[in-house]
Amino acid sequence: MSSIRFAAPLLAALSMAAGAAQAGVQLLTDPSQMTTDVLVDFESGIPTTGPVTFSPAAQIGLAGSWADNVTPSGSNGLTIALESSPLVATFSQPMQAVGFYFGNDDFGLAFDVTMSAYDAHGLVGSVSLPVNRNDRADQFIGLISDTALSYVEISYQRPQAQSLSVYIDDFRATTAVPEPGSLLLAGFGLATLALLKRRRA
């Protein structure tokens, strides 16, 4: 019985320590700043299963029509024509970093591209970049999070972007690894169970 009384406060203290770090995201401006475990170039269409899926309203967009025929790879990208709605990328497994190239930013309009990241509990943080206004999908925006992510939302600043549609290509993500605090808690839990089992025996 005394081992149970000792284990509970220690478990609570370890849990508090694991959750003490503040959640946050950091802006990335080049794909070399992240590890790429998942890459979707949209040349074979829009994935409907797998590690990442996209808004049902998203469509394949030809680079010649949407990005001055300049993309990081191939001739296809992904666009969503709902001017007031974000493009959502949802993950079937937690991700730690996310990034993509974007374009369709011509007509001399000055606006920001924003990516907002969410975990199972809500918004973790957002990053933004001003567009270079050259229409090409040659600008990269990404983020790395200290919290495992469930999905991201990609949007153009309104009303500054007017009716321009979001256009992205070469979407990439990094699979999350378990946090050290989580591993410590799991290890402590197993050790406690083993101790209790031995005392019963």
Structure keywords:
single chain, 201 residues, alpha+beta, 10-stranded antiparallel beta sheet, 40% strand, globular
Short description:
The chain is α+β, with helices and mostly antiparallel strands and 201 residues long.
What is the general shape?
Answer: globular
H-E string: HEEEEHEEEEEEH
Mean pLDDT: 84
Radius of gyration: 21 Å
What oligomeric state is this?
A: single chain
Helix content: 10-25%
SS field, number of helical segments: 3
Regions with little confidence, pLDDT below 50 for 5+ residues: 1-22, 182-186
Biggest sheet statistics: 10 strands, antiparallel
Strand content: 35-45%
Distance between the termini: 14 Å
Structural class determined from secondary elements: alpha+beta
Number of strands: 10
Can you describe what's shown?
By secondary structure, this protein is an alpha+beta fold. It is 21% helix and 40% strand. It contains three helices and ten strands. Helix 1 runs antiparallel to helix 3 (180-200). It starts with a helix and ends with a helix. Residues 1-22 and 182-186 have low confidence and may be disordered.
What secondary-structure arrangement, pairings included, does this model have?
Layout: H1 2-18, E1 25-28, E2 38-40, E3 52-54, E4 59-62, H2 63-66, E5 76-80, E6 87-103, E7 112-119, E8 122-130, E9 139-156, E10 166-175, H3 180-200
Antiparallel strand pairs: 1-9, 2-10, 3-6, 4-5, 5-10, 6-9, 6-10, 7-8, 7-9
Helix pairs in contact: 1-3
